Each structure stands twice: as C-alpha cells, then as structure tokens.
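Chapter review: from sequence to fold.
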Amino acid sequence: MNYRHSFHAGNFADLVKHALLLRLLAERQAAGSVSVFDTHAGAGLYDLTGDAVRSKEAEAGVARLMAAQGDLPPTIRALADQVAALNPDGGARFYPGSPLLTARNLRPGDRYRGFELRDEVKGLLDEALTGFPDATAQAGDGYDALVASMRGASNPLVLIDPPYERGDDYHRAADAAIAARRADPSAVVAIWTPLKDLETFDGFLRRLVPAGSALVAEARLRPLTNPMKMNGCAMVVLGASPGVEAAAHDICGWVAATLGDVGAKAEVWRT
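The token string follows.
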C-alpha cells in the first residue's frame, strides 16, 4: 500500500488523525510546555487542487466537513476552524498537515520538530514552517532520529505517521513507539495506521504489547473485507487520558456516521 500524504491529503483518515492530534496537543499544553516530534512530517501544507484531485478523497473528506450543516462535536469543530483559517474565501483548497497544524497552535515555550526523509518534500516543509520559529524541519529518518531528539525534551508528544510504503513500516512504527516510551515513560505517543484487514492490524498491536496498554480509536468506513482498500484507519495512543478517549469516541463516531458507507462503525477500546 502506497500512502502518499499529497495524494490522500484531506481524506477521512486525515480528519481522524488531525482532530485527535489537536486534542492531544491541547491536553499536553495544559500540563506545561510541550515538545512535539513528528516522525513522518510530509510537506506541511497541501493544495487540494494538486495530487489530491486524482484520488477525490478530499472531496469525500474535508470538503464534506466544511460543507457540514448543524452542530459538530467540539473536537471536529476545532479542526474545521483550522481549515477555515487557511481558506478565508471559503471552501477547502488548502489543507494543513500535522506540521503546520501543530505550528499554528504552539504556545510560548512549546517546540515542534518534524522529520522528512525526501529532500524535495523537506523543502516544502521548510516553506510551510516559515514564520514559526519554534517549529523546525529536520532531514532524515524519523524512526532512527526520534529517541536521540527526545533527550532533554519537556512533556513530549510523538506522532508516528508513516506512509506504509515499505513492508517493514508496521514493525518500525511499533518499535519506534516502544523506544520512545522507554526513553521517556511520560511521553504520549500516537501512531496512525490504515485499516485494510484485521490480520495486519492485529499483528501490529501484538508487536506493540511491550509498550503497555494503548488506546485504540478506529473509524471504519466499510467492513474490512477487501485488503487492497483502505477501509478505515486507527489512531493508537500510548499514554492516553480519559479525556482523549472521550474525544476519540466523538471524532471516530462522527467520521464513521457522516462519511462512511453502509456497515461503517467506530470502535474505541483499550488493549
């Protein structure tokens, strides 16, 4: 499975990931200055008239969010407000990736570091973070650089969001999460994964067992019967509070109910 950020930007999975990221960030900030580490940062800002046009996933994701009528859960509304701020003329042409979303919400004393392996994307990330002195982009493999970068960091929040282009991404994502929690047991670590089939996802969760109990927030748009399709997504959070669990219910429930096919559902549970 090839999950390029630019191709899928603004889809239903981004809504789950980014709405929950905002909630995690706000909670960590309530405890003091936070250091955010993003292992697979991507470009930071996406023009949805580019690659995303071909997939049409943004049309079925953020475009529907921005056109939604009636009350939205506060966690979903927070993301919609961020998108609206980047599109003052309305609509959803521009969509913030996790780097820009985080940078726009940093408070004095907070820090963000995003890792990007591809040089051409690193340049776009640098551009997206211009004007945010407390948010930096670093070239390199986020898996390898994570633990060393966390040394001395205060109140760490880690996002592990690989493209799952490589056969070992599930293993490396789990291993990086375990290493981060061993380096700092107070760290909150969130791992995004696609949901294609239960066998792959169950294997990922089994590998993550040494990290301890995890919150699993799933949004399934359709039954997991076709492993060639992204049938849903999950955020797996180590160190999640009851407040984050409640937010995950709201986020996944809204996405499944509003954007899903027949048979869509949300599940939030702890390992």
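Two observations follow directly from the output. The CA atoms of residues 43 and 207 lie 29 Å apart. The radius of gyration is 17 Å.
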